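All the exercises in this workshop are built on plain-text protein records. An example says more than a description, so a record of this kind follows:
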Amino acid sequence: MKFVKGDGAEVSEETRRAAWERIVAGLFEIANSPEVLRAPGAWLFVQELEEACKDIGDNLQSDSVDQAMEKLERGFRRARAIGQHAETRAARDWVQAEWSRDRGGFSTKKEFAEVFAKRVANEKHIEVDEREIRERWLKGL
C-alpha cells in the first residue's frame, strides 16, 4: 500500500511506523479512559476498534509496532472485561449506596442481603446471592 502526503510526496516506512505507534498509544488511552470504561456498551465499540487496528497493524510489521499492538490488545481486553461487567458494577454500587444511606432499614447485613438479593434480581436483572452481597459487596462498609 502506498501512502502519500498532502503534497503528493511518498511517506517513508519509518514515518508510517512512528505515526502508527502514536495512534496506538492514543487508542490505548481512549480505550482505558474512565469515561469509556463506565459507558454502557462501550466494550462493543472497543471490540470494533480492536478489529480495525489489527487490520492496519498487519500491514506495518516491526518490533516497535508489534509491542505497541500488544499493549493495545491488553488494553482492549481490559476494557472489554470492564464493559461486560458494567451492569453488575452498577448493581453493586446501588446496593452499597442503599446500605450506606440508612442500612436499608435493616439491623444486620444478613437481613439486608436476603432482601436485596431479590431486589437486585427483580430490579436490575442481575443474579446475585445473599452471601455475595453480604461478604463481598458490603465488605468493609
Q: What stands out?
A: The mean pLDDT is 77. Helices lie at 13-31, 34-38, 42-57, 63-84, 86-102, 109-124, 130-137. The CA atoms of residues 116 and 122 lie 9 Å apart. The chain is about 75% helix and 0% strand.
